[in-house]
Amino acid sequence: MTDRILAGRPNPAPQPMRSPLDNERGIALIVAISLLAVMSILGVMLLSASTSEIQLSGNFRNTQEAFYAADRAVEYATQGVAQGETTVDLYNDSDASAVLHRNRVTVGQTGLEPSAVSTSDDRNSVTYIGSGPPPLGGGSDAGDFVAHNYAISVVGVSPTSSANPSRSTLRAQVAKIVPK
Amino acid sequence: MIELLITMAILGVVVASMYTLYLNMQRTTFNQNEVVDLQQSLRVALDSLNRDIKMAGFLIPGDRTPVAAGSDSDTLVLEAASTLHVFARVAQDIEIPAGTVDTDVKDFIVALPGMADPFEAGDIIRIIRPQNGSQPFDADLEVAGKNRDTPKITVKGFATADAVQYVAGDMIARVVAGAPDPATVTWNLNGTNLERDGQVMATDIAALQFTYLTDDDANVTAVQVTLTADVPNQLDAVARQRSLTSVVRLRN
User: Fold this and answer.
1) Which of A128, A151, A154, B186 is most enclosed, with most CB atoms within 10 A?
2) ipTM score above 0.90
3) 3-class SS shares of chain A: helix, strand, coil, % to 5
4) Distinct helix (H) and strand (E) counts, chain A
5) pLDDT tens-digit profile of B198-222?
């Protein structure tokens, strides 16, 4: 049987060796991966651009918040701290109800920069400069009243949890008119 | 053969649409970059303007106003002791004796080393009493030197027949030589440029609007600024505008 069949067919011509280039299997994967790569590069470029923009506006917002924290502290110091003839450290000292001044100013992630008042560092301080006559035109009789002058210096930061937050420094001088 | 043709045709359509998409995306990216750049420069300019408004009226005499004459809806003229925002606080009383001449130097002890730092020999200064904005010696003075360890600023230019008394708390303000006293700073629009005393702070500005918020006595208490700009170099020739507004309270 076998012989007959073999006899009925000529021997197949020897096939040439198939080149690997003729093999189309897997081309879809390669095309898909290359397209994915191109798309990914475009996506990453867009993402990095928008990330840096978000950081820019985030920094801007932090600057604003640091400024408002400092502004708040100046207002607080003017109203509640500037009295007597002493220097007050707003970061380390407490008010009459034993609450740290800095905690009165802190709101959320914005507050005062950690500091300690010294002769070369006036961050977060209310300094008594001296007394003098009340400002002219203020309506206070210089015979009965005296002006206590204070220098206020505060540094607001935002966010307080960051190692490198935005800072805003404000200085103000205020006079309190008190009876002699 | 036919399948090759069909494949080529489909591929052509796909590639063409992808290329269009890519071109569109690139155009949008470019346009949006310009928008972002413009917004950024608007923000910087407005920040600088806000700073001037916050400092307006600082250490000026009681009979002057922070918002000076000449201010209207498109020009803002502000008065302050220093347009350079450089100040130091005198920490010790000092008397300039009668008969002091122009070349005599006087040491002013200042409160902190950091306060002496921004002053350099040759700078022009004025010394002002913050309680009423008056100047015990009403003329330009010159910095002769400084020492950050003491810390002190050495001043010359007192040509006075009468003694002049300075007290702790008086403020040294750096001013521009020959500038009017108190110093003024003018913000206005020159063509499409936003200018601060003639110096360009932002370009491509379409409109600048100042609105003054006043109290019952018609004293200005705050200034509202609206800055509108045209985005330049738009590839699709669409007119895009960006606008920033801020209200700043006068603090002095």
Assistant:
1) A154
2) no
3) 40, 25, 35
4) 3, 5
5) 999 999 999 999 999 999 988 899 9
